[in-house]
Amino acid sequence: MSHVLAIAGRELRSIFATPVAYVLIAVYMLFAGFVFFASLGMFLVQLEQIQALGMTNLLEQWNLQAIVVAQSFSTFAIFLAFVVPLLAMRAFAEERATGSIELLLTSPVTSTQIVLGKFLAIAALLALVTALTALYPLLLFAYGDPELWQTLAGLQTLLLYSLSLAALCCFISALTRSQIVAGLVGVAAALVLLLIPFAAESSQSETMKAVLRWLGTSTHYEAGLAGDVRSEDLAYFGLTILASLALARAAVDSLRWR
Amino acid sequence: MIKADALTKRYGGLTAIRGVSFEIAKSEVVGFLGPNGAGKTTTMRILTGYLPPSEGRAVVGGFDLAVEPNSAKRVTGYLPESPPLYPEMRVRDYVRYVATLHDVPRAERAEKVERALGSCGLDSVADRVIRTLSKGYRQRVGLAQAIVHEPAVLILDEPTSGLDPIQIVEIRELIRRLSAEEGRTVILSTHILAEVEAICQRVLLIAYGQLRVDARLDALREQGSLEQVFMREVEAAASRDARAAAEASAAAVAAIAEGQP
Question: Is the dihedral of CA A16, A184, A248, B7 positive or negative?
Fold first, then answer.
């Protein structure tokens, strides 16, 4: 365990030693803030129109939670498909490029410990990103009355989704010496996972449709972002993380057998 | 302390070393010589568990690297050709990190880190960021991380490269002290023949992937200067290698010719 923590601690400090993480997080927060307040502004305008037209039956479903929070979270998830791979791309690729991986591989440390250490560092970083994201809905609590548990469920889903992408990108990063390649392939993989459910719609066979839909990440975060935590979604993200870390471990093991 | 048993390493079609065997006893200082590309680094990487041999067996500190790699790594200190540094870290933090990875108990960590920093003359730069250090200091940081866990075996790949003459003398003095006073076994590769004469008791010479010389320095001196021995053996290995290649291609031609009626 001390190995895992040592590796994670070093990784985390080195993430913050370069401006990359700061810039990425700042850009993400900027876009997220823009989307959030744009959707809030839209909500208020539409609310006024509905009231002016006297469509009181619509007012029932016109709530802050579903329109502003859940929908901006959906957009954040798309931003994260770009941000998370760029944050995780350095994990192994950088150490392989500089040769410092030689230190890890000649130390009495197992491949599992190396992978867990790297993943733990990026997980801590993503927890921070999620906490920063929480600032936007938090502002709503100061002025309005959104649903607390549904908002928390949405944040938890964003975090789980980020963690699953991070685990996948750790694996991709262990396959190459180039951070850029790891980052680009990571973004591509994240986008493919987002888009798979759309391919499902045009599929002929019902089984294929169900499989493709299940594989897609958006299938599994939509309910959670709207505040509905489903065990099948938790299982999907948990499985993705475990499978990706197992693959990353195999990739690190293969570095020992060149 | 170190046992290499018929080590062979192939990278695809290229054979880097072929049947290299030697044994090194406790507290010996052995110089590992050979022209560039002869297989010195490959052999050292096998001994440190960074690369597995294609054939053969490596035992370090009584632990077979194929069976108990982590036990062997715990008793080994390794300075690769280019020190595996993290440029954004401070010197002391970096050495402490390596101590943690090598299972130095928490209670002893601070003391051992300071001792390693002191031994390598790094006290004055302990709080500097590694990126800002000169090449000589970086090399010394690499050496400090190799000795911080007080390993029984030290494997140093060109430990004095990039150092100025004063630093070279200091590092040689440190290596001599590590073996004479603390009983550590050292294997170091170098291109500087005078360095071998200054600190080693024994010489291993590798050329074209094969071990050509394994002798005590005083025995070698009777055959002439180290430089003469080096030139002679490398040339002999070169001609043998050329002959082997020629024979192999002749055999291949013969095999093809035989295959045709």
Answer: negative
- Could you tell me if B54 lies within 8 Å of chain A, comparing CB atoms? no
What confidence category does residue B260 fall into, taking pLDDT thresholds of 50, 70 and 90? low
The answer as to CATH 3.40.50.300 being correct for domain B2-75+152-259 is yes
> Is the per-residue pLDDT at B261 higher than 60?
no
**Any B CB within 8 A of A149 CB:** no
d(CA A95, CA A177): 8
Write the single-letter amino acid at B156.
L
Question: CA nearest A114 in B: which residue?
Answer: B101
The whole-angstrom separation of Cα A84 and Cα B107 is: 38
pTM, rounded to two decimals: 0.89
Beta-bridged to residue B211, according to DSSP, are B206
Q: Is the pLDDT of residue A61 over 80?
A: no
> Is the Cβ of B80 closer than 8 Å to some Cβ of chain A?
yes
Nearest to B97 among A10, A105, A108 (CB): A10
Q: What is the pLDDT of residues A103-126, one digit of tens each?
A: 999 999 999 999 999 999 999 999
ipTM of the complex: 0.87
Instruction: Please name the residue that has the structure tokens 């290698």.
Output: B241
Tokens linked to B252: 């291949």
Which range of residues forms the domain containing residue A138?
2-255
Q: Which amino acid is at B23?
A: E
* Domains in chain A, number: 1
What are the sequence ranges of the domains in chain B?
2-75+152-259, 85-150
